Amino acid sequence: MNKFPVAVQPYTVREALVKDYIGTLERIAQIGYQGIELGCPPEGMAISEQKAILDRLGLRVIGTHAGFDTLDFDPDLISDYLDEVNGGRYVAVSLRFNSKEDVLIKAEKMNVIGAKFRKRGVQFLYHNHNWEFVRYDGEYALDILLRETDPAFVQMELDTYWVKRGGEEPTEYLSKLKNRCPLLHIKDVEDGEDQFFAEIGEGILDFKAIARAAEEVGTKWLIVEQDQSRRDPFESLAISYRNLKEMGLI
Hints:
GO molecular function, one term: isomerase activity
CATH superfamily: Divalent-metal-dependent TIM barrel enzymes
CATH architecture: Alpha-Beta Barrel
Protein name: Sugar phosphate isomerase/epimerase
Low-confidence stretches: none
Radius of gyration: 17 Å
Keywords: Isomerase
Organism: Paenibacillus sediminis
Number of domains: 1
Structural class: alpha/beta
Distance between the termini: 10 Å
Pfam families: AP_endonuc_2 (PF01261)
């Protein structure tokens, strides 16, 4: 099995990022992460300065997130940022849905947005949570969204934890996304009723099997994210990185 490059979603260390932006990036790089999903720098820092810091640390911006529960953003402005920071060509979004009709309306809008991104050489992605596994007329909202969007314009950034919380097995759902899941958010889940977030390899998910499925469907990057942690978040990131390395996945 091929090894994957591994990135981090800095939502994991969001509080530290606000307090010490540069120091947080330095600590992420020191752990060993090669990439990061990152947006525009904080106020007072130019993108060129942000890029210089990332270059010094050997961290590559592999993509960014356009927002949560909104499609009201400018694809050109986001593409301009990725161009300037010399970043990857992925932009992800997460949405909420209240009906099948809502899914259909948003799918149509996503096709339009995805086409605009495609003209700029950027791939638009959808990042799931667990609420997309609600059924409308017997189908998951996520299945409807995938069916109604053009794979050329809208692909997936599947999240292993949230698939499990939605009641599905990540390997099985991932296997349906051939050539449609270039980025994979990986996070583990504790055993027990709470299904709390866990560091990679510390929970119940089989990441060797997940990695095999990811390889088969053409996933390019594994991205570690942990929404909440029982430990210091940097320790959680280090544990996840160490366990991925011990598994031979990175």
